[in-house]
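In keeping with the milestone schedule agreed at the kick-off meeting, the structural modelling team has produced records for the first pair of proteins. Each record is given below as a sequence line and a structure-token line. The laboratory manager (R.T.) confirmed that both were archived under the project's standard naming scheme.
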Amino acid sequence: MREYLNETAECLRKVRSKLKDYELNMNKVKANLGKAEYEITNESLQHLKLL
């Protein structure tokens, strides 16, 4: 029984680690999307100024 609990605990640690990596990657994606949104908005304003 103890071995089963140890294996379960190890699997949960791995899942937690993968979720943390996923969270970090999603934060990077959100930051990149925010930057892209700003760039598009800025480019749109530049284009409007030229008209």
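The second protein of the pair:
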Amino acid sequence: MRISRLLGVFAVVFSLITSVQAGVTGDFDETILVSFDNVELEREFKVHVPASYDGTPMPLLFMFHNVGDTASNAIAQTDWNTTADANGFIVIYPQALNLGDSVNWDISAAPIDAPTKDTQFVSDMVDWARANYSIRQTRIFTTGLGMGGTFAYLAATQHSQITVFGCQSANASSGDGWFWPSSGKPELSAYIMCAPDQADLYAQSQLLRDHINAINGPGRWAHLQESGEGYGWKTWLNQAQWDYFMTVAVDHPPTAVASASANGTLTLQFSGSNSRDDDGYIAGYLWDFGDGATSIEADPSHTFAASGVTNATLTVTDSKGQTNRTTINVAPGLSNTPPQITTPASADATQLTLMADTTVHVAARDSDGDTLQYAWSQRDAGPGIVTFVTGDAADSIVEFSEAGTYDLRVTISDDNGGVATSDVRITVAAPASQSYTTYLHVDGNLRRFIVYVPPSYDGSTDYPLLFMFHGMGGTAEVSASTDAHDWQSTADANNFIVIFPESLTWPEYWYWNPAWHKHWLVEVGPENNTDVNFFDEMVEWSQANYAIKSTHIFTTGGSFGGFFSNYIAVARPDTVAAFACSASGMSTEGWPNSDPDPAAPLIWPIEMPTSPPQLKGILLHDEEDPVIPYSQSTEMQAEMLAKGHISELITLYEMGHGWDKNQNQSQWDFFMNAASDTQGAGEGEGEGEDEGTPAGTQAEATGCACGLGSDASGAWSWLILLLACFLASRRRRKGAGGEGDPGGDGRSRHRLWVR
């Protein structure tokens, strides 16, 4: 079962659970599933509902905490609960994610109207509040401290019903890259608070005020409030901020909703009680039945003098005197004629590839003059999930989660129960190849990785899986670079899937060099290690989303990434069939001669276990590596062999500390031999060999790659071949340098895969 289906089931169950919370007052924690960029994440927030809540619509306030802080601290720091109890509004305190460097809000939107995972979080929290409480729709506000205030601005620009926001000591400058104050939203007011003694922030607050005032429509403005001295939230300004919110919030007119009973008789029952006012309440109704008669009831009954088609108009007035009207067609004394489809259901493209979308269309008319309603749906379970972006319209964009054939249906209904349907079939093919970025929520952090799926993959065959870990200070993009590493070409040629994960930032380690802060967490053991958990989650995710050959999961990496490849193989020997590490080999000791502070934590020394389980690793290293000594790899190989493991060492030339992508195929051949050997004798190649010897390898531990025997009759052949191997090994061609450089023409010398 695909993970998307599992998440869909979970979302339904979860919605049923959370619905129990509807109407609850007091303080409690909530968790919702937020979908963004094809990823589902659990997001947490805290809620305060005043004891005075009785179902009457209340305003809603979001309070966003500062960078590196928590929702719990925001409650204590701001004391909004006291203000909410006194004024009658609901407060939500969302919790930010760890974005890699720190717990913070995602304000990376450029342009400003581009959604982020956090603005989607806000939209979903608004939906949650509406589903569980009666909310005044035009009294939804955001505020925050520091970067939380910056995000309060961003959230307000992207949510149509948030027209007022607040912020205290917010960094809203475009000059330092924190934010882009370019919103053109005209209905936006702000209560900006900052202490004048915070010179930089106060200057930015002035710029933010001037920007909002420059773009605002009539009656909108930004107020800059001096908040005493010092940085931090000023609770004594809560009431003033709230009064500002309620005073300048945009008031919208009511919405008139009218309907009538089925035609066929002269007496019809009308209904206007579903009309609503998001700012207050409906104060009055006025019906005009089109025959000179009127009514001020919400749901009147009216008898027409004669049959025929006419219009009935409902006008509603809200508590502030604003009005809205709607007109419906009725046919008293006439039987109903169902809708007639004039153009059957169709699609812009009935053949498309996964990750693409298409638009479906239909056209219909109603001879009675009724208003038509459209509902697009998936006729059966199908191969995956179908999403209709505007499923209640004649035209809708439609998206698909899996490849396969989908039968879609549009149901068209009129005001009096008449129904017509039309179907269209769409076939979705697997893409030629996929390379995309996705995320997982692991231990409170949003973890990022790039996935590459070769064009040959169609889901019918289990594919091997390779993890490529970047070096210290690197990124997933560095690992996935075709110039530097080009695992994509090897994957295309050998039919396997590649994942390029990205590490977190750990400033408490290697603190003397900030460029090294971004690295894999190997300073501690694998127990409760968040990077090990990340690896486990990626394996599970891969197996849920693709057909993965579980006996063929491998790891590789360069430099620090190579060390983590070794680290994961030791930590998860039942998962990793074989590993590779280039320019690393640091298995038994810390990084030599690089720590100016001997008391600081260094690399956790891997204790190479004694076989079984038997580890299988291929090491690649330049003899003249200027960063990690070549001896690290030779010592690591010796350690592996001494403890009954399998190891091969490829000596690189003129690669420095860089990656030789010309050796990718050598790595892959080693991996496949290792996995084949793991399956045991008699399975595939190598049948009949000694247990533990890789398939196709027949040399002894001290033998040669030529595979010749050691009997006396072959002595001259041995000498000639050894001399030829020696001379060939000394030839060198120019290659590329440091880590991240494209692998060039560097030559390599192979040591045998030995036991």
